Amino acid sequence: MKYLIKNKLIIIGVFLGAIAGYMYYYYVGCVSGTCAITSNPLNSTLYGAVMGGLLLSILFPTKKNTKILKEIAPKAVIIDVRTPSEFQSGHFENSVNIPLDEIPNRIAEIKAFNKPVICCCRSGIRSQKATKLLQNQGFECYNGGSWQEVKDLY
Fold first, then answer.
1. Which residues does the UniProt record annotate as the domain Rhodanese (predicted)?
2. Domains observed in the chain
3. What is the mean pLDDT of residues 59-69?
4. Is the whole model's pTM more than 0.70, yes or no?
């Protein structure tokens, strides 16, 4: 149920896309039968559902709770999980560089900070993986997204 509430826009997109896909089949469709998607109502409906879900997930991305991050940030350690070369090309001045693939081997080092952790990277994808990994290890950890977004918290 929590998943449904959190992703209601995507679910609405899937539903609306399915309707649009079926309507496309019904009103436009492929009369000759040579079109793989539009000559079959099931294919057209499923294609519309996937496209509707993707479209709404892109147009309305899930937002981070920046209020919580702003409260945590002053007392947290910022871990940038990009590679050392990416980190050297630009980073938040108070962040520590621990690449994503090194995190499992550096748990003791992270634990020694004895602070909440905010992970960041270039886009937020690697930091999300690092956040899940650290949360599974019992850390109070948050995904800050990109390092530029973390910089804006201060």
1. 72-154
2. 1-59 (no CATH), 66-152 (3.40.250.10)
3. 67
4. no
Distance between CA atoms of residues 154 and 152, nearest Å: 5
Cα–Cα distance, 100 to 145 (Å, whole number): 14
In what helix (H) or strand (E) does residue 53 lie, and over which residues does it extend? helix 41-59
Quickly list H helices, 74-123. 84-88, 107-113
Type and span of the H or E element at 131: helix 125-136
Q: Using alpha carbons only, how large is the chain's radius of gyration in Å?
A: 21
| Span 22-50, pLDDT tens digits | 888 888 877 667 777 777 888 888 888 88
Integer Cα distance of 94 and 102 in angstroms: 19
The helix (run of H) or strand (run of E) holding residue 120 is strand 117-121
Burial 29-38 (b: 16+ CB within 10 A, else e): beeeeeeebb
Residue for token pair 């962040």: 95
